[in-house]
């Protein structure tokens, strides 16, 4: 039944694709990119209900004035811009590390093959939990605190993960701790970085 489980994400994507035309454009996009003030107000009312959104509109106008001289770059232009190389390098290293670490950790933990599908399901659930949790706290704490806290949590979790992997040959239950630390790492990554 794994093919059914994997096709579920395709079903969700299809539902989103069908529903997307019925949702309004982003108000900041309409105002700052398209210059459509009336469309922006209409989108705000459609998204947030009736009300006075003059304060939000003024904030967007200030942001538009600040970014007026800024050129919007496509992907190739961003890749050619030397000022973004440090950020791109960090992002690339982090993404590559995430892609490669899970396979090696599951190998090192010597998990029984029958458990691997449940671990994969747990990884997906961890990602889902982190997205829900992050979207509910990002406005309260701000991105900077979530980034710093997420990186700090990830570092601590990696220390405990390394310890659990080193002790997994001596204590069989440490293998399951390794899996739990992987789940926590994914949640910390989803909440912060």
UniProtKB/TrEMBL annotation:
Per the record, membrane topology reads:
Multi-pass membrane protein
- One cellular component GO annotation, for this chain's record? plasma membrane
State the signal peptide span.
Answer: 1-17
Single GO BP term? dehydroascorbic acid transport
Which residues are in the Major facilitator superfamily (MFS) profile domain? 1-193
**In which broad location class does this protein mainly occur, judging by the first location in its UniProt entry?**
membrane
Q: Which InterPro entries match?
A: GLUT, MFS_dom, MFS_sugar_transport-like, MFS_trans_sf
Q: Source organism's superkingdom?
A: Eukaryota
Q: Does the keyword Signal apply?
A: yes
Record localization: Membrane
Q: What transmembrane ranges does the database entry give?
A: 115-138, 144-166, 173-192
Any single GO molecular-function term of the entry would be: D-glucose transmembrane transporter activity
Q: Which UniProt keywords apply?
A: Membrane, Signal, Sugar transport, Transmembrane, Transmembrane helix, Transport
Kindly give the PANTHER family that the UniProt entry links to this protein: MAJOR FACILITATOR SUPERFAMILY (MFS) PROFILE DOMAIN-CONTAINING PROTEIN, SOLUTE CARRIER FAMILY 2
Name recorded for this polypeptide: Solute carrier family 2, facilitated glucose transporter member 9
- Source species of the chain: Colius striatus (Speckled mousebird)
Ranked from the top, the taxonomy reads: Eukaryota, Metazoa, Chordata, Craniata, Vertebrata
């Amino acid at each position: 039944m794994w093919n059914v489980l994997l096709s579920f994400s395709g079903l969700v994507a299809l539902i989103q694709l069908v529903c997307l035309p019925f949702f309004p454009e982003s108000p900041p996009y309409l105002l700052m990119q398209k210059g459509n003030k009336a469309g922006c107000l209409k989108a705000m009312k459609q998204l947030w209900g009736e009300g006075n959104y003059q304060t939000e509109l003024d904030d967007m106008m200030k942001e538009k004035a600040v970014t007026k001289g800024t050129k919007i770059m496509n992907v190739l232009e961003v890749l050619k811009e030397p000022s973004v190389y440090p950020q791109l390098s960090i992002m690339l290293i982090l993404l590559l590390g995430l892609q490669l670490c899970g396979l090696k950790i599951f190998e090192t933990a010597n998990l029984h093959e029958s458990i691997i599908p449940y671990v994969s399901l747990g990884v997906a659930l961890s990602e889902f939990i982190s997205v829900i949790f992050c979207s509910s706290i990002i406005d309260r704490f701000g991105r900077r605190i979530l980034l710093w806290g997420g990186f700090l949590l990830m570092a601590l979790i990696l220390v405990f993960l390394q310890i659990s992997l080193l002790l997994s040959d001596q204590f069989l239950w440490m293998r399951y701790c390794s899996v739990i630390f992987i789940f926590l790492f994914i949640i910390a990554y989803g909440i912060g970085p």
